[in-house]
Queue: 2 jobs
Job 1
Amino acid sequence: MAQIDVHRKPRGLRDRIAFAFVKFLRFFADLFFRKRYGHRAVVLETVAAVPGMVAGLLQHLRSIRRMRDDQGWVKELLDEAENERMHLMTFIQVAQPSLLERGLIMIAQAIFYNFYFFLYLFAPKTAHRVVAYFEEEAVTSYTNYLREIDEGRLENVPAPQIAIDYWDLPANARLREVVLAVREDEAGHRDRNHYFADALIAGDEPKAEATDAPLPVYALRKT
Amino acid sequence: MAQIDVHRKPRGLRDRIAFAFVKFLRFFADLFFRKRYGHRAVVLETVAAVPGMVAGLLQHLRSIRRMRDDQGWVKELLDEAENERMHLMTFIQVAQPSLLERGLIMIAQAIFYNFYFFLYLFAPKTAHRVVAYFEEEAVTSYTNYLREIDEGRLENVPAPQIAIDYWDLPANARLREVVLAVREDEAGHRDRNHYFADALIAGDEPKAEATDAPLPVYALRKT
């Protein structure tokens, strides 16, 4: 189980650029969403589902181009993208996005996909660091979301069925348990992406999580 | 278990374009590789691993943009790409690519990735049809490969360990059994891609293979 509240101090120029970029985007997200955490989750999860897919694509192409086994890394990256997509599918049951938000999602994807594709193509280490810092912010936002629920400002509605199935929650689970599960996932992605950046910086090929490690929460999805 | 020798007659302009394009490429592959089936498999599997990844990427982005569940389709597309990558990892144990072939692989990927990305972006129905016809040709080539082995012109070497693990073959398996397993996979991808094209033409959202169906061979990979 990943530690929840962990922050990695930026070290060196690459980290500082990644960190500043993430904080810059957070400023606008805070401005736009304020305390509408459900809506925030919907819009930001549409962005969060992009990096794992782009990284999986580019590492897959690299693996076949060089004809070297990827040691399971590609699958882990794609699983990250699928996990973020499941967060999205969960939160649209909780907060229906407005028409403005739907438009925003289209534009954000068109910009962010292309931006991240070229960032990853030319600077994969920075790209993984950016995701890791994104996830640090996501953990913070979900902690704030929990506080709003715990202090009664947001209703602790029943968990959507899709979330109960995906995380294997009890049938009477509520929103609080969903946010806890999502936050745990994000903390895991944070640690893995910091590790991916570190491994690439050290000149190593990152390895997929050891298969004898406990399964990540999102691997429990019933198929 | 997919039928092995099935050919779908092209119907309509879209099919005819896809079919002609595939036959055009086959002409050059035949010219270049002649009867060097191991080398042919290595080079062509580096190309075959591209479409599933591109389709998975674009359908994933579409699913999150529209905030609609993909019903497992994205995962099936990505699994196709992973399966093709495993074919590649298998055949490089059988036929070491020459320097010329390695260069060819780099160039082919750069061209084919970009070509297929834009084909899928603007004409996904044609894109799936192209893959289906590719796979028809792949089945034919693997049948030819088997004949060369059976008639003693190619040595029936022991199966590489990676293939034994992936397809769960007996420890004393030989190349013949590997080619049979790969051909079976390709026949499956052929049928699925014809179905994906048909479903999109009919205006339906394609569905992933029913989970109560027997697992495709490539799902048996030990992790």
Job 2
Amino acid sequence: MAKSENETPAPIRPVPRLPKGFRDIGAAEIREQQAMLTKIRGVYERYGFEPLETPAIEYTDALGKFLPDQDRPNEGVFSFQDEDEQWLSLRYDLTAPLARFVAENFDKLPKPFRRYATGSVFRNEKPGPGRFRQFTQFDADTVGAESIAADAEMCMLAADTLEALGIPRGDYVIKVNNRKVLDGIMEEVGLVGPEFATRRLTVLRALDKLDKFSEQEVLLLLTVGRKDASGDFTPGALLDVDAAERILSTVKNTQQYFVPSDDMNRAKQLDKAIEGNATYNTGFEELTQIHSMVRAAGYGVDRIRIDPSVIRGLEYYTGPVFEAELTFEVKNEDGQTVRFGSVGGGGRYDDLVARFTGQKVPATGFSIGVSRLQAALASLGKKSSDTLGPVVVLVMDKGEVAAYQKLTQTLRAAGIRAEMYLGSAGMKAQMKYADKRGSPLVVIQGSDERAKGEVTLKDLIEGAKAAAAIKDNKEWKEARPAQLAIPETDLVAKVREILARHET
Amino acid sequence: MAKSENETPAPIRPVPRLPKGFRDIGAAEIREQQAMLTKIRGVYERYGFEPLETPAIEYTDALGKFLPDQDRPNEGVFSFQDEDEQWLSLRYDLTAPLARFVAENFDKLPKPFRRYATGSVFRNEKPGPGRFRQFTQFDADTVGAESIAADAEMCMLAADTLEALGIPRGDYVIKVNNRKVLDGIMEEVGLVGPEFATRRLTVLRALDKLDKFSEQEVLLLLTVGRKDASGDFTPGALLDVDAAERILSTVKNTQQYFVPSDDMNRAKQLDKAIEGNATYNTGFEELTQIHSMVRAAGYGVDRIRIDPSVIRGLEYYTGPVFEAELTFEVKNEDGQTVRFGSVGGGGRYDDLVARFTGQKVPATGFSIGVSRLQAALASLGKKSSDTLGPVVVLVMDKGEVAAYQKLTQTLRAAGIRAEMYLGSAGMKAQMKYADKRGSPLVVIQGSDERAKGEVTLKDLIEGAKAAAAIKDNKEWKEARPAQLAIPETDLVAKVREILARHET
């Protein structure tokens, strides 16, 4: 149509879109997630943790800044000012709010305080494939427990959780390290003090690659740097080769020590290499304790393994750190076969509450990345069965909507998932709608049927099978009719019968 | 201790606190809420709605501004800029994001599109008692259905949900009105056009008070204004008395029309009073349809009631509006006896999707205020039974932590909620801890018992009863000992036995 000249200008309409890094989640994924969260909650409860919910918004200073690898100090967190000009932030994890909660309520809480929490966290980071700015975590933490048994327990909790979700033993491993071990190793090569903070970080990042790269490549990352296949250059930690090799061998020896073996000479070698370093020795002793506790409780090296190459990003860890890794292989975005990798982790953070109170409150925790774990379960084919769509009551006669509504309510009152078609389209489109909803069956009542006190049930699942089979076997359709007329009084019983056939 | 002079200055520590209007939610309330959400979800699913989750953050322009009664245009919403300087906001309800989702995915969706959603919403408003800046809603919406049957269904959904939560029939009512009815009534007294927008709002607010104030007081609010007992003055809508009385009588007549009665003269009177007003007539006709549909489906006037005094705040409603009201009485903060009031509501909003697409997409929905409803259930005494705390395994000998850990894991592997005491305190403090956690029993193993392969179970619930009874009846304690030594191999069986005693 030609526009008339004195037409009012078209209103400016917003474009319906989401900011980058945010996403909508549909019914199937939500149902899977619900089932997952219920299972995780079951394990956390069994371990004696109690639920706690803190709000999404906190004072910025209360959260602190502990995000990994933020080049700019204000990055990583969504922040805004309150009416009184104080800065607020969206929580970026569930641990910082826990520290605030414990500091605020210390006297009232049982000590140790064991809580679990799940909810959305927000990162104001550059989104990427599978990397979102809002995602769900599921954490368990024990606050006020100095005992390394609390850390050992986190590792067992992690293993039990993955198995409860159906991940077979052998397809996952909980890797355990201790920050003090790495700190001691770095002390030994002179990387001590604030002036070496950046180089220590580069060393840690290099060691983190030990499960992906060859030793030779990690050595490059510890020294002069490494160029990858695409020509991209990663700067190195600029250690001399002796120091780099010493770091690598200590990491490897420490790892080997905890692998069951008759060759106890290794252990002696290890002790000599790092002898007298108090930081290392404390960390090593803590790893030994975790090792013996989990073994005593029946968790073998196939489930929980000491691995000094585990880094974990967050700056607040002070002792043991854990990583829950899925070891089976999947294709990555570039089509390469890779191990699925980390789906959660945690560690000990003895200083987080002290930020507020000045008083040290030892704490340790474990956190699951829910979406990532859900992706893992999907790639393992661990899906709960599809939910059937609702029974759809078709509207054959618009003057009789109240009658159709009543049929629908009768089904619902009997606990059957049902709806009346609420659009304005005809019979054919209504059938299409029922298909799109995944309805197992539709209820049809024309005026003739109403006069007779009857309804017709059309079994859409049988119907689809019959339609597919009809070329080969016409009789099949006749023998198992997908459509039947029944007295209205039998509605609930007959619908239940059909649903029972399809729900198994 | 005296401070030494060359001490470094104390670090500035953040105060652990939450911004006003935000709160932490403890274990008991979370468990109640979980149970509630499960029941609500059950009803919404039964009605054929599918879950959908949208993120907490949206583009500000996509959400639009539909908050009620905001004096300043930028108020009510938490907003901040993204890195590319576009404005983002936290969602203030679940309806505006649904409109964005539908506009964005229109072609892919089944029509009508029926979804439910639950999650936190955020209001940057002045918090008050029971008024928070983050709270949970639970919504069901049907998008793409012009049929008034969709609205009737929302009312039945609301009634069924409240009953599923255990609110007895008679203690709630779903009130139904239609914006067109009120618009028509206001047209009749000349309140038409943008210049009367503020006065129309004042009229609506006055009518909203009909369930709290006397008619005479509402009449004051419609005319010259009203001074309350404390001397506070509420300005009136400045109508002349005739107009005000006409509004009041039409509202009351409309209401009476739908109350079952033999006196049909009322209906005739009503028709005459407002004859020829198309807006009113359309609204009245829609109310009539809802009325007959819900009655046909068996919902009486005790559950769903037409009530033209219902207003609902949000500006985006275009037709039927609903209010789920709890009618039982509670004490308010001032100690006065009041009806509990609204726990949810909704209505038809035919223009929300058109904001994006220019194409009208009729829609209607119902939203529950979860915390408010939870408070209502609490005041009705509808609490699910208390959860028992975990079994606590005491640590009698710190050198044997691995053995205690193993006992704990044995219990957990059998599905029993259990934990080892992880603090550093002695026996007495450990017992206190178990009490504070609500533990039903503790597991004790000293070195003597370990040597004999035994453990001692101490039943804390029996123990407490015995301690209370001991003055009167010393033998009682002997007959039902709260403490028993058992072989370690019987641990799981005996613990189960004790738990079964307390879980009923």
